[in-house]
Design brief:
Blueprint: E1 2-6, E2 11-15, H1 30-33, H2 43-46, H3 61-76, H4 87-92, E3 101-106, H5 113-116, E4 124-129, H6 136-149, E5 153-159, H7 163-177, H8 189-194, H9 196-202, H10 209-227, H11 232-236, E6 241-247, E7 254-257
Parallel strand pairs: 3-4, 3-5, 5-6
Antiparallel strand pairs: 1-2, 6-7
Helix pairs in contact: 9-10
Bound molecules: zinc ion (ZN).
Function: Catalyzes the reversible hydration of carbon dioxide to form bicarbonate.
Organism: Glycomyces niveus
Family: Belongs to the beta-class carbonic anhydrase family.
Length: 258
């Protein structure tokens, strides 16, 4: 096991064999993704629409989550303000980044986190996979924001009518029932397998089985992230809050789940 000290020893990123059976992890140096020395912008660069708080001025993960949900409400209402998208802000980020939250979501083209939370560049560190499925390689990207850049909030975001989860549900159900599935080819085999735990966990839940599987997938992913070797200590120390939500394609709103 080895350790990588970051941010002047304020945090130690533990690497090695973890709960997911990871081999030695090597997190790239901060310089690869933007350093932390220069900070980001200044008061002028951070200026935004007056009634929209600057995410970077918020103290706690709870405040950041509340602000993101407020941004989601603006998005759902069709009144996004698109903060942090001006040239001055953009150039202020050239020397470094300090995303306030990490978001792990689906690749679906309708669920872009920066848009549905009404945020801009430098605000969120986003990782996306089909069905927001998780594996050791992806885990390094998801954990990078909290572990290396001190993002205090990690959001796992599933969404309504997720094609990957729907396809996995069909494939796993067909396999279980021993039936042929005409459209099986479109179900990404690795993704289907990664979603098997959510399929099993959703059994017996009331309501639509795909909705239940989407929710189960978010909850299982939250648990896996909380136990991840890069994040477990941060969670235990209260330095990282992990939350989950499901985005509605119909309303544009995110419902927090736990
Ligand atoms: Zn999806």
């Amino acid at each position: 096991m080895s350790t990588l000290h970051i941010r002047g020893d304020r945090r130690t990123l533990i690497t090695g064999v973890g709960t997911l059976g990871l081999g030695a992890l090597l997190v790239p140096a901060l310089s690869a993704c933007g350093g932390d020395d220069g900070g980001i912008g200044g008061a002028d660069a951070a200026a935004q629409t007056p009634d929209v708080p600057d995410l970077h001025g918020l103290e706690t993960a709870e405040d950041i989550w509340d602000a993101l949900l407020d941004g989601n409400q603006r998005w759902a209402d069709g009144k996004p303000v698109h903060p942090h998208t001006d040239a001055e802000w953009r150039t202020s980020l050239a020397e470094g980044q300090e995303p306030v939250a990490a978001v792990f979501s689906c690749v679906d083209s309708r669920v872009g986190p920066e848009l549905v939370f009404d945020t801009g560049v430098g605000d969120l560190m986003v990782t996306r996979t089909a069905g927001n499925v998780f594996d050791p390689l992806v885990s390094e990207s998801v954990s990078y924001g909290p572990a290396a850049l001190e993002a205090s909030l990690l959001v796992v975001l599933g969404h309504q009518k997720c094609g990957a989860v729907t396809a996995a549900h069909e494939a796993l159900l067909a396999a279980e029932e021993g039936t042929e599935l005409e459209e099986h080819d479109y179900a990404l085999p690795e993704t289907v397998e990664a979603l098997r735990p959510a399929y099993e966990a959703a059994k017996g839940e009331s309501g639509d089985p795909v909705d239940a599987m989407i929710k189960a997938n978010v909850l299982l992913t939250i648990q896996a992230l909380k136990e991840h070797p890069n994040l477990a200590e941060l969670v235990a120390d209260g330095e990282l809050t992990v939350v989950g939500g499901v985005y509605s394609l119909e309303t544009g709103l995110i419902t927090e789940i736990s």
